[in-house]
Write a structure and sequence with these properties.
single chain, 248 residues, alpha/beta, seven-stranded mixed beta sheet, 7 strands, Methyltransf_12
């Protein structure tokens, strides 16, 4: 089954593809846009455009651009923007985020849960620096080890220990790369659990409701496998931090 379709179905109830509650998302966006009467935002790996649509709905003087390789996700972004009446302020590009270029810099760059598109956190920071206006802000979300991962956790995530560090080391690396955290959020265990139950539940329920679809069996298998990997593998080991950063 196509991985992008799995992701779209799994995020049907929660289009923010990260373990963040609605309140956490709203607070981070409010802080990201604080002090600016208007501006331009860019989401690298925007998926269904949930971050940008919420930003535009809350900030009538902002405009935004989203970049993603998932054409169906971009279609949903347009639909969501149209439903909220913000479609004229949103531009969408079906493009690899690494290839995106702009003549004008952005006041806010977002990359939450999509740093893999650039090969990790530090390359994402370097890419964002080239697109950010002086005084602009970067909202970036990344995983970290809440505790030393077990072999079960590493197997479930198909990860190596060196793929992540603890929160302190991760933050030190961000600072060493020339960025200053001005706000942030560490996802709580209830946020993680709600996200994972929604992810696996939405996918499993779709399979139950569409037994005639050729992908129904694969969808149910993916949901069951993901649930087991989470509960028996990485739950409590993998954390998620969202930084609001400014350049030094």
């Amino acid at each position: 089954m196509d991985r992008q379709r799995i992701s779209r179905l799994a995020h049907a109830r929660r289009p923010i593809a990260a373990p963040l509650s609605d309140d956490s998302v709203a607070r981070l966006l409010e802080r990201a846009a604080a002090g600016a009467g208007g501006g331009r935002a860019l989401d690298l790996g925007c998926g269904e455009g949930a971050w940008l649509v919420r930003l535009l709905a809350a900030q009538p003087n902002w405009r935004a651009v989203g970049v993603d390789l998932d054409a169906a996700g971009l279609t949903r972004a347009r639909e969501s923007a149209t439903a909220l009446g913000v479609e004229r302020r949103l531009g969408l590009h079906h493009l690899d985020a690494r290839e995106f270029r702009s003549r004008e810099p952005f006041d806010l760059v977002l990359c939450v849960g999509a740093t893999h598109a650039f090969g990790g956190l530090l390359p994402t920071l370097a890419a964002a620096r080239e697109l950010l206006a002086p005084g602009g802000r970067l909202l970036v979300g990344e995983g970290f080890w809440e505790r030393e991962p077990s072999e079960a956790a590493l197997t479930a995530l198909a990860a190596a220990r060196e793929d992540h560090a603890g929160l302190a080391t991760t933050t030190d690396r961000v600072i060493a790369a020339g960025w200053t955290p001005v706000d942030g959020h560490v996802s709580s265990q209830p946020e993680w659990d709600a996200y994972e139950f929604s992810w696996t539940g939405a996918l499993a329920e779709w399979a139950l409701e569409h037994p005639e679809d050729p992908d129904a069996g694969a969808a149910r298998e993916a949901a069951d496998r993901h649930r087991a990997q989470w509960l028996h593998g990485y739950r409590g080991a993998l954390g998620f931090v969202t930084y609001l950063l400014r350049r030094d």
